[in-house]
Amino acid sequence: MTELPTRLIPLFEHTKRVCFGRLIIDVPSTATVVYGPTDVDFPIAYIANEAQRINVHVAKEVEKYEKERYMIKNLSPIDFAMYGKVVDGAVAGQKFVFGSKLFSNLTIASFIPLGDHLYIQDGRTDFNEIEENVGVLNNAAKNIRIRADDEIPTESGLCIEGGFAKSEYDYEKASIGIRLKEFPDVHLSIMSLKNGDFLVEGDDIEDRMKEAQEDTPHGPGTWYSRVDFLRRAPRQIAHWKGSEVLAHLPPQKTATESHEFHFTSSGAKNDRYYTRLDIELNTGVKGNRQGAVHTSLNDTEAVALWDKLVSTLQIRPIR
Questions:
Q1: Beta-carbon count within 10 A of 44 CB
Q2: Residues 256/295, Cβ–Cβ less than 8 Å
Q3: 295-311, pLDDT tens digit by residue?
Q4: What fold does the segment set 6-39+171-315 form as a domain?
Q5: Which tens digits make up the pLDDT trace of 263-303?
Q6: Which end of the chain, N or C, is more open, meaning fewer C-beta atoms within 10 Å of its C-beta?
Q7: Cβ contacts of residue 44 below 8 Å, gap of 6+?
Q8: CB count, 10 Å around CB of 68?
Q9: Which InterPro entries does this one have (predicted)?
Q10: Counting beta carbons within 10 angstroms of the beta carbon of residue 16, is it exposed (0 to 12), middle (13 to 18) or buried (19 or more)?
Q11: What is the model's pTM?
Q12: Under the phi-then-psi rule, with left for phi > 0, alpha for psi from -120 to 50, and beta for the rest, what region is 49?
């Protein structure tokens, strides 16, 4: 691991451990953690302090479907009868709303009040799978509990925003973004996805780079030819074996110079602990646009920060 430059040492004098999915990572205590797309069998979203307004959220969902009712001609008569229907779930206060996407498949939305907060899960379903998927969503609702930001559970399950979903699931996805108060143009993002019966072909970062090289002119003076690859090689982070590319990007007409670092690992099939993993660090970011401002880190600092952060990533220990 690259030694921390002097300017970065104060950043790590105080750190906090962040739990997401089945993973943990140590970040500066001043960092802001933003939870991204999360799956607990079905996608799940968190809305803070909205549990008391669950009926408002349910009513808005129903209203949205009722406005589109005239467009659902492709639904079967049985599906049509379910459209816009609200039923109780297995957990106190939980509500299901049935609707449609693309006016051809039914959807289920599960509204789960938990303490002061509200979770919403939704996904598509065929009519003959409604009972099965309602069961899956009820199971998730039963297993979710509130979790303090600094709580690192020791049982099997997934850390989600504001909560914890105990047990194991067929579809598991977790993602977070890390924003540094001291260097606001630096963004780190991590995505972990449990694979199914197959791995995504060509998902390795080196495969992507080779495709980019083949599709991009590389003559003297071209933008790609001026990319400075600080590191480009296979790498192992914790138990994930994958590829790493650390690049200093030259300026373009609409962007300043910046850093773009990637690590990818395809993981293994059906292994919730050896997931597909995608880590990215960008500098010069403002308003989610890379190269919008001048990078606050030089090459040595950017590489050291990357190494310091990713070296702490690991599977959350369970008893």
A1: 25
A2: yes
A3: 999 999 999 999 999 99
A4: Protein Transport Mog1p; Chain A (3.40.1000)
A5: 999 999 999 999 999 999 999 999 989 999 999 999 999 99
A6: C
A7: 38, 119, 120, 121, 140, 160, 165
A8: 13
A9: Tli4_C (IPR041290)
A10: middle
A11: 0.91
A12: left
